[in-house]
Specification:
Helix content is about 25%, strand content about 25%. It has about 500 residues and is α+β, with helices and mostly antiparallel strands. Bound molecules: iron/sulfur cluster.
Length: about 500
C-alpha cells in the first residue's frame, strides 16, 4: 500500500499546501442491497476524492460480518482489483479523510469499526464534534480507552455504553449528546443508518438505483458520487434526521434537539458553495456551479472596474469568473493555466527558483495578458501569500493592471465544524484592512463579495446558513472545542 510523503523534508514541496490553506474535510458513502457494493463504494469515494486525500477505507457487510480495508493515501492508491474482490457483501460504507481533528495516522483512518454487545458496527463521519473534549474526558474517566485521536470514536464509545439492544435507539441517544457538525453513515450486521446533525452543517444525500437484487439505496456527501455510478438523486437527509435502511425498506426518525445549544434552526456550511463541494454537485438543494456563477455576478455588480479581461484562478475561481464576465460584459479568458498532472509532492530544484511552489502548478500566459488590464477572480483569500505570488506572475507576464476580486467575504475566523482552517492570527482579513491587504498582495485594487451580497446571490437569508468564518457568529455553543493538532505549513 502506498503512503505519500507529508513530512515536508528539505527536498520535497507539498503542492497542495502551497496553493490553498483551506482544506476539504471528509466524504462519506454508503450502499445497501447491491451485489457490487465494494466496487460502487470505491467509485463513490473516487468521485469525492476532493473532500479528503489523506486516507480512505471501505467496510462491507457479508453474512453479518464486516470486512475492512483502509489505508493512508488516495482511493486509487489504496484500492486495487485484488483487495476490492475480497470486500464481498451486498452492503458497504466508505470514507475519504482529511484530518480536521486527530493526526494523519492509520488508526484515525475511517470507517472506524467496533464489536458492540449487539454486533459489529462501522462508522464514517464528515464534520467535527465541537464538545468532543468534554465527552472524551467524561468517557475516559469512566474507563473508556480510545484507539485514535479523532472525534468520531466518541460516537462508538457512547453507543457501546448505551443500554438499549436496538441499534437505532443506541445511535439516536448517542448522537443527541454531540454538539457540532456530523454527517454519519453507520453500518451494523443488518442495516445502515445515515444521519445529519441538527443544524445540517455538512451535506448528505440519498439516491437509488436498480440492481439484480432489486432496489439499492445509496448515501453520499455529494450528489456527484451518484452521477458516476448511475444512481438517481432522491433527496437530502434533513438536518436532525436519522434514516434507517434495512431489508424492511426506509424508516426515518428525528432527533430530540436541545435548542438552547444553538442560535439558529439550521446552519448548512456556506463554504460548501464557495469552495469545498464539486461544482457539478447539488448541495443543500442548489447547484454549486450556479451558486458560484451568481457569486461572480453579484461581485461584478458590487465592485466592477474598467478592464480588458476577466481571468479565473483555476480551478476554484472559474465559475465565479464566468458570472463576473457575463454580468460585466468584459471578456473571459484563461490567463493562468493550471498543471493538473502535478503530484502531491515533487523534488525541489537544486537552485531555488522564486515562487517555485506556485509556478509549478500555475503558469501565466503572456500572449493573453501582455498589455492588458485584468480582473482576476478567486473564490477566497486566506493568508494572502499565494495571491501575492500570482499577482507577481501576472505582472511579469505583461499585465498592466491587476484587479483582484474575491467571490466570498473576508475570512475572519476559523471553522470548528469540520473544515481545516488556519488560526485566526493567520487569516489576513482578521487583522488587516482591505487596503492593507491590497498593498500586501500587490494588486491595483481589491474587493470582496459582501456578506449580504453572498446571501442575495443564493436567494437565502443569512440565518439559514452557517457563515461563521465570515461573520464571526458561530451558530452553536463552542464549549469543549479542540484545535487541530497538525502544524500548519506555509510555502
Ligand atoms: S465556519 Fe465557515 S467553513 Fe465552517 S461551517 Fe461555518 S461557513 Fe462553513
Amino acid at each position: 500500500m502506498k503512503a505519500y510523503d507529508v513530512s515536508q523534508s528539505e527536498k520535497t514541496w507539498d503542492v497542495s499546501q502551497s496553493e490553498k490553506t483551506w482544506k476539504d474535510e471528509c466524504g462519506v458513502f454508503a450502499i445497501w442491497n447491491h451485489p457490487d457494493s465494494a466496487k460502487l463504494t470505491y467509485l463513490g469515494l473516487y468521485a469525492q476524492q476532493h473532500r479528503g486525500q489523506e486516507s480512505c477505507g471501505i467496510v462491507t457487510l457479508h453474512q453479518k460480518q464486516h470486512i475492512i480495508h483502509k489505508g493512508l493515501g488516495l482511493v486509487g492508491d489504496v484500492f486495487n482489483d485484488k483487495n476490492l474482490s475480497l470486500l464481498t457483501g451486498s452492503a458497504a460504507i466508505g470514507h475519504v479523510r482529511y484530518s480536521t481533528t486527530g493526526q494523519n495516522l492509520i488508526g484515525n483512518a475511517q470507517p472506524l469499526t467496533s464489536n458492540l454487545l449487539n454486533g459489529p458496527v462501522a462508522v464514517a463521519h464528515n464534520g467535527n464534534i465541537v464538545n468532543q473534549s468534554i465527552l472524551r474526558e467524561a468517557l475516559q474517566r469512566e474507563g473508556s480507552i480510545f484507539q485514535g485521536t479523532n472525534d468520531t470514536e466518541i460516537l462508538l464509545h457512547l453507543m457501546a455504553r448505551n443500554p438499549s439492544n436496538d441499534l437505532l435507539t443506541a445511535f439516536t441517544e448517542s448522537a443527541e449528546q454531540l454538539v457540532g457538525a456530523y454527517s454519519f453513515v453507520v453500518m451494523s450486521e443488518d442495516r445502515i443508518l445515515a444521519a445529519r446533525d441538527p443544524l445540517g452543517f455538512r451535506p448528505l444525500v440519498l439516491g437509488q438505483l436498480v440492481s439484480d437484487l432489486g432496489m439499492s439505496y445509496v448515501i453520499a456527501s455529494e450528489s456527484c458520487a451518484f452521477d458516476l455510478i448511475g444512481a438517481e438523486y432522491v433527496r437530502e437527509i434533513e438536518p436532525g434526521e436519522i434514516l434507517e435502511i434495512s431489508k424492511s425498506g426506509l424508516k426515518t426518525k428525528k432527533m430530540n434537539i436541545d435548542q438552547s445549544l444553538y442560535s439558529q434552526k439550521q446552519a448548512p456550511c456556506v463554504f460548501e458553495h464557495v469552495y469545498f463541494s464539486r461544482p457539478d454537485s447539488n448541495v443543500f438543494g442548489m447547484s454549486v456551479y450556479e451558486s458560484r456563477k451568481k457569486f461572480g455576478e453579484q461581485l461584478a455588480i458590487e465592485s466592477g472596474v474598467d478592464a480588458d479581461l476577466v481571468i479565473p484562478i483555476p480551478d476554484s475561481g472559474i465559475a465565479a469568473a464566468l458570472g463576473f464576465s457575463q454580468k460585466s460584459g468584459i471578456p473571459f479568458e484563461f490567463g493562468i493555466i493550471r498543471n493538473h498532472y502535478v503530484g502531491r509532492t515533487f523534488i525541489q530544484p537544486a537552485q531555488a527558483i522564486r515562487d517555485f511552489g506556485v509556478r509549478v502548478k500555475l503558469n501565466a500566459q503572456a500572449n493573453v495578458l501582455k498589455g492588458k488590464k485584468v480582473i482576476v477572480i478567486d473564490d477566497s483569500l486566506v493568508r494572502g501569500t499565494t495571491s501575492q505570488k500570482i499577482i507577481l506572475l501576472l505582472k511579469q507576464a505583461g499585465a498592466t493592471e491587476v484587479h483582484m476580486r474575491i467571490a466570498s467575504p473576508p475570512t475572519i475566523g476559523p471553522c470548528y465544524y469540520g473544515v481545516d482552517t488556519p488560526e485566526k492570527s493567520q487569516l489576513i482579513a482578521s487583522h488587516q484592512s482591505i487596503d492593507e491587504i491590497k498593498n500586501f498582495i500587490g494588486a491595483d485594487s481589491l474587493s470582496y463579495l459582501s456578506l449580504e451580497g453572498m446571501f442575495k446571490a443564493l436567494s437565502r437569508s443569512p440565518k439559514t446558513f452557517c457563515s461563521a468564518c465570515f461573520s464571526g457568529e458561530y451558530p452553536t455553543s463552542l464549549k469543549g472545542v479542540v484545535k487541530k493538532e497538525k502544524t500548519e505549513i506555509t510555502v
